[in-house]
Amino acid sequence: MRTDRVNASRSAPIAKLLIPLLLGCSLSVSVLMFSERSYQRLAQANLSIADSLETQAISSQILALVNDAETAQRGFLITARREYLEPYISALPKIDPKLKRLKELTAGDAAQQERLSQLTKLIGEKFAELEAALVLNQQKGPRAAKELVDTDVGHRTMNEIRRVMGQIYEAEQAELTSRTARWNEDVATSRFALTVISVFSLLLIGIIYLLARRGILQRERVRRTLEDQVRTRTAELSQRTAELSELSSNLQNVQEEERSKLARDIHDELGSILVSVRMDISWAHMRVKGVDSVAAQKLARAIQTLDQGVQIKRRIIEDLRPTLLDNLGLGAAISWHVQHTCAQAGIRCVVWVPEEEVRIPSEAAIALFRVTQEALTNVLRHAKATRATVTLRAADNYLRLRVQDDGLGIPADAQLSKLSHGIQGMRQRITAIGGEFRVQGSPGAGTTIDVIAPLTLGAGAVVRRPGTEATVSQGG
Question: Among the four residues 22, 303, 346, 360, which has the most C-beta atoms within 10 Å?
Fold first, then answer.
């Protein structure tokens, strides 16, 4: 349920952000389409304005060429100088291309096309009149030509050309004014639309920012809540682990106390009983030894059985609570146990212990001894080793125990195997006294158990020098 709520809280801001993002994408597409449309309209308006300006310019040029041709013709008639005809001669070849260009520029305007046809006709009449005067001047002399020029026909034709040209110019001017107004309107519309779109974009960015900030804050709150829950659960787990560790340590201490008490009871009570019985049977055996051989044999067998019982009693006491640990110390107890165990198992063992005993709390001493016992038990039962090395060394503030073997090595799934309980038990013993426990090894390369236990030192309690080596060979 908590996971569903967390997923829902994460998906809600995403869903809220999706709508503004879709609006933003739509807005971007709209801006692109509007910009393209505005660009096309403005480009078309610019072309139209350019056409109108070109039409006006060409119209002015055509009128100027006609005026220059008329002026050149009259100058020639007055002065009879041939160079005055140059503008007249060059005017007509220049006018024809310009008239064609005007037809192209006004192709979509029927009124302008009609005016242009009229203008073309008037220009033809004007040049025909000018040509007639020049022919008359050549054939009948200047007077006849001057009389033709002085008639009102040429003046009316020129005025008509100016009138039609003025209509064309005014029509283009009106179209230019209209197109310029439309261009200005399109620019204003584009600016207004871009302003609106910009404002909307800013609002959209603000909304997205607020939603994103809200989502970030919400995720931060969820993260902090989860962290608080994790810290709470971790604290509870640590507390429970500490309680379980303390309980385990207490159980181990109680167990050791019970073992010690049981060992003392067996030694004091059962030991005295066995010794008393053996003394009585020995006395009886001495009495009947020369009288009744059968009874003597039975009593001798009983004495042997009692001796075996005493040995069993001693082994049980040593297993419950090693007397060497209490009487001679940790080093002697470890050395004796390793040598005794390896001798029974028939493997080679090497033991290194300090020459002088180290003062160490009894809880730490029994913990290190039990770890040594458990480690050797694992070596004998599971490692299939031929050699084991046990090293006990003292430093300034700690005691280090290392148990090595050349056996099969610790398996990869050691935590799940039957060895795991022994390993966990050893780790728990060392952790309970504030020490460190490590297991190293790999399949086929042997196993090393390394223990570091805190050491409470007294004045002159530890002499740091090389330890002595005790070696037990097979059968030895």
Answer: 360
Whole-number Cα distances in Å, 151 to 60, 84, 127, 145, 475: 26, 22, 15, 10, 160
Dihedral, CA of residue 21, residue 26, residue 28 and residue 33, to nearest 10? 170
Tokens of 443: 């399949």
Report whether 454 contacts 332 (CB < 8 A): no
Assess contact for 453 and 368: CB atoms under 8 A. Answer: yes
List the chain domain ranges.
2-219, 329-472
Phi then psi for 20, rounded to 5 degrees?
Answer: -60, -35
- Note the pTM of the prediction, 2 decimals: 0.45
Average pLDDT along the chain, 476 residues, taken 10 residues at a time: 50 62 73 73 75 83 84 77 80 84 83 85 82 76 70 77 84 83 80 79 80 83 91 85 67 65 68 78 80 80 82 72 73 85 84 81 83 86 83 84 84 56 81 85 81 64 38 35
Q: What fold characterizes domain 329-472?
A: Heat Shock Protein 90 (3.30.565)
The structure tokens listed for 308 are 């075996």
**Residues ≥6 apart with Cβ < 8 Å to 144:** 136, 137
Distance from C-alpha of 184 to C-alpha of 187, rounded to nearest angstrom: 5
| Residue 269: DSSP 8-state | I
What are the residues facing 404 on neighbouring strands? Answer: 389, 448
